[in-house]
Specification:
Layout lengths: L7 E2 L8 H7 L4 H7 L11 E2 L6 E10 L5 H7 L6 E7 L6 E3 L1 H9 L5 E7 L2 H6 L4 E6 L11 E2 L3 E3 L2 E3 L4 E5 L2 E5 L4 H23 L4 H4 L3 H6 L7
Parallel strand pairs: 1-8, 3-4, 4-6, 5-6, 6-7
Antiparallel strand pairs: 2-7, 3-8, 3-11, 9-10, 11-12
């Protein structure tokens, strides 16, 4: 598969293991990103279109043409229960590619949400139906249905590579992509990181300083930090 393919829909997609996806859904984006080696984040301009939007699922990818949402309608047919749609564009475009009607169609297929490096509209309706969307912009400007893109090809969305079947997790902190073959490994690493953070959280509650928890005093002194009365 090449992400530059146009006019093609791949109907067979290897998705991440459902148990690993369910395990990843328990963790926040920041935890997953750190546990994975501080990689996988999309650019921070991709923001939830309403507060408390959150999603986790396997990616159905879409390559759009600017100002044209035809391929989102094509993608609806490829959605399976538990998928999220990840839409990139051949060039920058903030037109309103997606709204309440497409959300209704996607949800009927079992879609858990949308990440799009473009614009969306009908935000109040999306919030009312609690359909999570993370987008580059909110824009009432409509689109046409005239130019072929592709579905289920690798895409670059928000500077992150997303392949069909990869796991996408999104919350108030951003969007992170977990390669499908690493889903179980990253879920286990996220659980371990969260357990370690709970131990540190207890120490902070007890009044212990980060200077001591993280052993910072020695390195700071070596660099010449001085305390003066």
């Amino acid at each position: 598969m090449q992400h530059t393919e146009l006019g093609i829909v791949h109907t067979r997609t290897e998705r991440a293991d459902p148990e690993a996806v369910a395990a990843l859904s328990k963790f926040g984006v920041a935890t997953i990103h750190e546990a994975m080696g501080r990689v996988g984040l999309m650019r921070p301009y991709l923001r939830p279109v309403y507060p408390k939007a959150r999603m986790c699922g396997t990616a159905v990818t879409v390559l759009l043409q600017p100002g044209d949402n035809w391929m989102l309608h094509v993608a609806a047919e490829q959605i399976q229960d538990g998928d999220v749609v990840v839409a990139a564009c051949t060039t920058e475009s903030e037109d309103g590619f997606f709204g309440e009607l497409l959300a209704t169609s996607f949800r009927a297929r079992g879609c858990r949400g949308l990440v799009i490096d473009g614009g969306v509209r009908d935000v109040a309706d999306l919030e009312g139906m609690d359909f999570p969307v993370f987008s580059r912009a909110v824009n009432a400007k409509g689109t046409v249905k005239a130019t072929l893109g592709s579905v289920n090809v690798p895409v670059v969305c928000g500077n992150a590579l997303v392949r069909p079947g990869d796991v996408v997790v999104a919350d108030a902190d951003g969007v992170v992509v977990v390669p499908r073959e690493r889903a179980a490994e990253v879920a286990a690493a996220s659980a371990a990181r969260e357990a370690k953070e709970e131990d540190k959280r207890a120490q902070f509650r007890a009044g212990t300083l980060g200077l001591d928890i993280y052993g910072m005093r020695g390195p700071l002194a070596e660099l010449g930090l001085r305390y003066e009365d």
